[in-house]
Design brief:
seven-stranded antiparallel beta sheet, Protein Transport Mog1p, Chain A, alpha+beta
């Protein structure tokens, strides 16, 4: 029989970590550390070793680092969440508005440029240009769209065989671009022949606008929207002293002859970057 002093000594050793045995508090018999009952007396064994708790790290969570979430008061969390949500929506709205805005007349503003998409054609032009309202006469001549920084009134010289008189109308415009479309039965081969003829002699072709005062006329063969086209550049002036640079592009697509006309008044106002942007983006549906 183990004395009470021995039992106490064994229990003390157990508490101090000097023994891995589980000492029975009744009979003092040492048992394996994983035993539940004493092998000697059958008594229930208990461990006096304290359960080591995992220390909670004293770290600040992500939310507590955000102003308004440092206090976990519910109403503060809700109000802060609403504020941050509003700010996020404003940022997304601003970014989206700067990137793309739906405009009127089938246009889309994007990165300071406007995309026109109507009448089975599309192209990109500067956002500071205006989309003009076409008159009945312009529409009857096949014109389908006009954009620019000024009023689109083309300078033309017409001769009347009946009255034997010549009338000149002049436009005062900074930059403009307009598109005309007329149905045609000409074949692609014949159009290519005509384009080559225009390049060889740009002053003598059946599609060029007849302006008696055109000078410095040059022509090139280019590709626009995947088809061959003629590019005719000229400097013109009228009897009122106005002068302008004009570029006319002619090409055949889908049974129509398209005429793309650029005008800059005065000639030095011509912007090559705007011109390239428009013709490189021009597409026929």
């Amino acid at each position: 029989m183990v004395s009470s002093d021995e039992i106490g000594k064994k229990l003390e050793n157990k508490r101090n970590g000097d023994s891995d045995e589980l000492v029975c508090p009744k009979c003092g018999t040492g048992n394996k550390s994983d035993s539940t009952y004493c092998l000697e007396c059958g008594g229930t064994l208990t461990s006096d070793k304290k359960v080591e708790e995992t220390p909670i790290k004293n770290e600040t969570s992500f939310l507590r680092k955000i102003p308004g979430f440092r206090s976990w008061t519910p109403w503060k969390m809700i109000s802060s969440s609403i504020i941050y949500l509003i700010v996020l929506i404003m940022i997304i709205t601003f970014a989206g508005g700067a990137a793309s805005t739906i405009g009127t007349n089938n246009t889309t503003v994007s990165n300071n440029n406007v995309t026109y998409n109507n009448n089975n054609i599309s192209f990109v032009y500067p956002s500071d240009w205006n989309l003009d309202n076409l008159t009945g006469d312009e529409k009857s001549n096949g014109e389908i769209v006009s954009v620019g920084t000024g009023t689109n009134v083309v300078t033309t010289t017409t001769t009347s065989n009946i009255t034997n008189s010549t009338n000149t109308s002049t436009s005062e415009t900074d930059n403009c671009f307009f598109v005309s479309r007329n149905s045609s039965t000409i074949s692609a081969d014949d159009m290519n022949t005509e384009i080559n003829a225009i390049v060889a002699d740009p002053t003598n072709n059946q599609y060029l606008h007849t302006i008696s005062s055109a000078t410095n006329v040059t022509a090139n063969k280019i590709t626009i929207d995947g088809v061959n086209a003629s590019e005719i550049t000229s400097i013109s002036s009228d009897d009122q002293g106005a002068s302008w640079k004009e570029i006319d592009i002619y090409f055949l697509k889908n049974g129509y002859i398209y005429t793309l006309t650029f005008q800059s008044t005065p000639p030095g106002n011509f912007n090559e970057n705007n011109y390239q942007m428009i013709i490189n983006s021009f597409h026929v549906e």
